Amino acid sequence: MMAIIAGAVVTNIYCTQPILPLIAASMRVDLGTVDLVVAAALLGFSTGLALLLPLGDRYDRRKLVLTQIALAFIFAVGAALAPGIWALIAASFALGIVCCVPQQLVPFAAVMSLPSQRGRSVGTVVSGIMVGILLGRTIAGVVGERFGWRAVYGMEAAFMVPVWIAAASLLPKGRPSTDLSYARLLASLWPLARDNRPIRESMMIQALLWACFNAFWVNLAALLADGPWHLGSAWAGGFGIIGAAGAFAASFGGRATDRLGPRGVIAASIAIVTLAYVLLEGADTSLVLLVIGVVVLDIGVQAGLVANQTRAFAVDSKAQGRINSLYMTATFFGGAVGATISGWLMTRFGWSGIAGFGIALGMLASLLHWFGAPRSNSATPGQGNAAL
């Protein structure tokens, strides 16, 4: 149930991507400007992860989830009624902040699981998130092309009503793991990152992989519209169905992490993402390479997401919310940066700029994984987890 709720809420963030050309045409702005709608949603999501996720260690996560879903309804309505591009960017930022619900649920599932099953549980919820992201794009593309981009946000607002009812009826009551004040919870984030190498590595590597993920999906609609195919938003959204096949790698990645340990799975995910962009280099002329590249990219990113997250969670069972705040804030900050830079690259260099960007990010992630991770010099709890 957590997987379903998580997948439903996260569609608010990603429904915009296949309808960006429609928004640009309606509001008469260029590609670089309209990409800021997606970047604002991702930056808002990062802000919510940083400021709201730590509350899950202190308060009942069920109440936090219900409050955020209600606010998501309000901000989705605001986006649907936005009179101009900057109002839409502001609404997207606010919507992003409250839509960190899925990442309230991931540590919820981890806490409820035995250590030997933590990877599988995390993978199940992450699979729900990724299916929501990818199928949400598909539905948004079809609705946007038929009824306009405002109808997409209206649909998202309406969808939050049954999601809230389901969450209120089915989610268990959360159990706080600390009595720290909110200020002390936030203050404890830096020592967690400073003293624990596994958390730092996971944050940096997944930020780079998520930048790869968003660089592709943010610019797919523009590629299909302006490339040799001249396909609309419905086609861009339809690629979400193809990508959904790769999304189930999150569940398999969780199981592999339980059996083999996270480092090997992380290394494999980096290699797979880099390979995907090698294939996607030819995506502006070959639909076959585009389809294969979509599946390979999503397999690599989703497997890495779960392996990195499971590795970070293993550091401290009583700080799951704060660890997830650090991890996912870094991840989605990387995604926002990837969306912003890739929009500029697409405008200036075309699709080859996107492909080169993805390969460069994959190589940097590989260097960080094997050689460049910072290490603590003092004896800390993080050193005991350095082998994770």
TL;DR?
This protein has helices spanning 2-14, 20-27, 31-52, 61-80, 85-98, 101-111, 118-147, 149-170, 182-187, 189-195, 197-226, 233-247, 249-260, 262-280, 287-313, 320-349, 351-372.
Structure description:
- By secondary structure, this protein is mostly helical.
- Helix content is 79%, strand content 0%.
- The chain contains 17 helices and no strands.
- The chain has helices at residues 2-14, 20-27, 31-52, 61-80, 85-98, 101-111, 118-147, 149-170, 182-187, 189-195, 197-226, 233-247, 249-260, 262-280, 287-313, 320-349, 351-372.
- The longest helix has 30 residues, at 118-147.
- The model is unreliable at 376-387 (pLDDT under 50).
Record the SSE blueprint.
Layout: H1 2-14, H2 20-27, H3 31-52, H4 61-80, H5 85-98, H6 101-111, H7 118-147, H8 149-170, H9 182-187, H10 189-195, H11 197-226, H12 233-247, H13 249-260, H14 262-280, H15 287-313, H16 320-349, H17 351-372
Helix pairs in contact: 1-6, 1-7, 1-8, 2-3, 3-5, 3-16, 4-5, 4-6, 4-8, 6-7, 6-16, 7-8, 7-12, 7-13, 7-15, 11-12, 11-15, 11-16, 11-17, 12-15, 13-14, 13-15, 14-15, 14-17, 16-17
Shape: globular
Strand runs, count: 0
What portion of residues belong to β-strands? under 5%
The helix count comes to 17
Query: What is the residue-averaged pLDDT?
Result: 84
* Helical/strand content category: mainly alpha
Please state the CA-atom Rg, rounded to the nearest Å: 19 Å
Oligomer: single chain
